[in-house]
Amino acid sequence: MGVKTRVVYVCRECGAESPKWVGRCAQCGQWNTFTEEQIIVDKSAVSSKATAVGGTVHPIKLREVEVKEIQRSTTSNGELDRVLGGGIVPGSIVLIGGEPGIGKSTLVLQMALSIPQKQILYVSGEESVVQIKLRAERIRGVSQDNCHVVSDTSIDRLSQHIDTVKPDIVVIDSIQTMETERIDSFPGSISQIKECTAMLMRIAKENSLPIILIGHINKDGQLAGPKILEHMVDVVLQFEGDRNHMYRILRSIKNRFGSTNEIGIFEMLGDGLREVTNPSEMLLTEYSQELSGIAIAAAMEGLRPFLIETQALTSTAAYGTPQRSATGFDLRRLNMLLAVLEKRAGFKLASKDVFLNIAGGIRVSDPAIDLSVAASILSSNTDMCLPKGTCLTGEIGLSGEIRPVNRIEQRIAEAAKLGFNRIIIPNYSHRIPINNFDIKVHQVSRLDEAFRILFG
Ligand code: TYD
Ligand code: MG
After folding, report:
1. d(CA 285, CA 360)
2. What pLDDT digit, counting tens, does each position of 411-450 carry?
3. Ligand 1 pocket, 336 CB below 6 A?
4. Pocket of ligand 1 contains residue 125 by CB under 6 Å
């Protein structure tokens, strides 16, 4: 049978195909994203694609569908299990994305070394087996007997490797280095990533085998490759952190088997990643003395409360347009808060440079840190320290009102546990049992009330 090839143009952003080059993708609307790719049309590959996912190909009544409880198996890593929703599901594909050097390979290798009862097949297209061995020597693991490594970039050979090793979990490091001969384009190209992922999905479903894919992230923090990569896999996790800090956050972006608001926290040490089970330690290690521009927020990520320091610096703009910069916090939200402070609370910040930083090098998405952010900006602006032992929680609305946040009792309890003596919270119309806590609780409905308590 002759090999039939064709040229297609593929959109780098969304994976849309077109027989001709076009300037603007009709599907996602991006400009100048089409690249030429050669494709070998393999008929046998196409026909085997359409296999049934759940085993049945006859329509049945929804009522008759039997629900088996999802079997999950632990990864022996509490934080990873938490983000996965309680463990890894057979036949599922988990994509872990992150910047180079953040610790993706370390995370999965460490998982492999800590479950001696499971056979792991670690396929690396990035490193030699010697390099993997050297990394494994650094990490304190339980066993290296169960971890089978191969340095290979061919997905076509994966089935062979699976037959020899009979693994319980497969790791592919990374999807951008893998290739299949079915498609005649470079590893990392959109059609290669698409086809390799489709092949991996088939392998995962047919063998009920969980596969962990490592994925690169491009400059804008997006997973490199087509967006459909994220649509194809079952779970998308993002490993993030500031490379100059030790803390790393594993965030769930998509999870077909669990919630997406859980995070896992790790600390990168010389001998691997340590699970951080008490997130408030990120505060305790960095919080030292009273300084202006610093406030403590009672925040939540997923189901866990923690206290985190927000730091601000304001100074008169040296050049015409004031600079605003935020690390670990959404810049648009910072601009919104500055506008609210200016318009609703009468603080003159329009001509000030404002820099904001969340301590520990992590990114917090909980809107309840607004109040702490506003307090640290004012503290820096007036050069007055906030009273020691005080923390804050509350979302700020456009009219300067402080809006209630979820799980307030857990936040108060966490602040009390860490020895804070005062917490400022939004006003709750229903009664919350503030007397049950060993901490003074102030309820405020507006920004100025909060500032009166803080600055007298
Ligand atoms: P790595 O897992 O190779 O990152 P990725 O796969 O995401 O590119 O880890 C990279 C960094 O982590 C590297 O700069 C060295 C550091 N590191 C430690 O600090 N401690 C360790 O035990 C290990 C294995 C790595
Ligand atoms: Mg790596």
Report:
1. 9
2. 999 999 888 999 999 998 777 787 788 899 999 999 999 9
3. no
4. no
Angle at the Cα of 235 from the Cα atoms of 230 and 240, rounded to 5 degrees: 85
Q: Which helix (DSSP H) or strand (DSSP E) does residue 304 occupy?
A: strand 304-316
Check if 221 has its Cβ closer than 6 Å to any atom of ligand 1.
Answer: no
Model's pTM, two decimal places? 0.78
Atom of ligand 1 nearest to the CA of 268: 19
The tokens describing 407, both together, are 């799980």
CB 104 within 8 A of CB 239: yes
Average pLDDT, the chain: 87
Minimal-distance CA residue to ligand 1 atom 10: 101
135 contacts: CB under 8 Å, gap ≥ 6: 105, 106, 109, 127
How many CB atoms are located within 10 Å of the residue 134 CB?
11
The two structure tokens encoding residue 298 = 């009672």
CA distance 112 to 76: 9
Q: Which of 245, 285, 252 is nearest to 102 (CA)?
A: 245
Cα 99 to ligand 2 centre (Å)? 9
How far from 341 is each of 310, 377, 446, CA to CA, in Å? 17, 9, 11
**Which of 268, 269, 271, 273 should be mutated for ligand 1, with most atoms under 8 A from CB?**
268
Residue 213 has which token pair?
A: 């894919």
Closest CA to 393 of 409, 381, 417, 377: 409
Q: Which two tokens stand for residue 64?
A: 């008759």
